[in-house]
Amino acid sequence: MKIAYLDCASGISGDMMLGALVDAGVDLAAVQAGVDSLGLPSCTLKTEEVKKQAFRALQLTVEHEPEHAHRHLHHIEAMIEGSTLTARQRELALKIFHRLAEAEAKVHGSTIEKVHFHEVGAVDSIADIVGSAIAWDLLGVDKIACAAVPTGSGFVEIAHGRCSIPAPATAELLQGIPLAASDVDGELTTPTGAAIIAALVEEFGPLPAMSISRIGYGAGQKDFDHPNLLRLLVGETVAADAQSGSPATDSIALLETNLDDATGEALGHCVDQLWEEGALDVALTPLQMKKSRPGVLLAVQCRPDDVDALATVIFRETTTLGLRRSTLQRLILPRKAVSVDTEYGPIAGIVAQLPDGTERCSPEYDSVAKAAEKYGAALAAVQQAFQANVTNPKSINQSKR
């Protein structure tokens, strides 16, 4: 799988992002053509190789005619819809702007239709965001991962006055994203940069197992005591070692809430809905809560992109007023899906490889239950038939999982 990893030790901004993408090999002329089709005032993307604390990087700047326009979301949507961008590029650009609009609306107590884009509605920010959307599409990766994000410290001047760092919209966009400690006096992560990673990044954590093919460096405008650059690593994921059974790693989200006034039927229905919405795991644990009331802990593991959909289910189907959300790293054993031929027909199952190289085989319950019902057999008999035949290569049909 082709993957990109954002090493944002000095934070992230829109120009740093686009600079890193171009430095990693994306055609600047193709990005410029897409930006030109937006109908903005004269807008040119310029690149220059610079040094940041002795390290080279590509600095991208947007040159444009002065303007004083404050745009709403619908103005930007109209630009994008009327452009020559591909469907995928429009989708990525609109996704980023919608995340920005949601954050701005929340911090200002407004709606996404009414909120004004100030700094992020300016020509340079629009070019950075749309240009990045075009460049990500042209880069053609299957997955984007990212390191923990530093925001910087101190204060920044924005259209609404002097605000502490991270700026309100930036902080809103970074909810649920791991942040890195930083005592740098200055803004390292801007609302534009935060919106890009909030909209596009699927996994946060350390550098994943990968074979690097390209590296791009995007320079920030300011100079600090550290190299102010964003590093983009592009390559292919490296699967877990099939011989050693070394676990792979990924990031998942965990949603939790304590409930003391939910009926068993309501909880059962909620769990069913969570599975249907793509939860990786759902668990109910008995609790004794305040005033000695019996309760349950509802814990849901899911992919980061599925958090909003699953949170909606929990709020709709239970009485909870809030959810705890955290991001976790998990270890995953190499495994393969198998279909084992038995006297009860083919039974689906999973063969996992342990770190010592041995294998552990388990039949899928639904497949076992279906066969047991069809043949009028005991569940245990079908399970035993699976285990008896799983070691016979002639009985197994494999597919990677």
From TrEMBL:
Q: Which InterPro entries match?
A: Ni_insertion (IPR002822)
Recorded GO molecular functions are: lyase activity; nickel cation binding
The protein's UniProt keywords, in alphabetical order, are:
Lyase, Nickel
What domain of life does the UniProt record list for this protein's source? Bacteria
Q: Which NCBIfam families did the record assign?
A: nickel pincer cofactor biosynthesis protein LarC (TIGR00299)
The record's family statement is: Belongs to the LarC family.
The record's annotation in PANTHER family points to:
NICKEL INSERTION PROTEIN-RELATED, PYRIDINIUM-3,5-BISTHIOCARBOXYLIC ACID MONONUCLEOTIDE NICKEL INSERTION PROTEIN
Q: Tell me the protein's name.
A: Putative nickel insertion protein
- Species source reads Adhaeretor mobilis
Species lineage: Bacteria, Pseudomonadati, Planctomycetota, Planctomycetia, Pirellulales
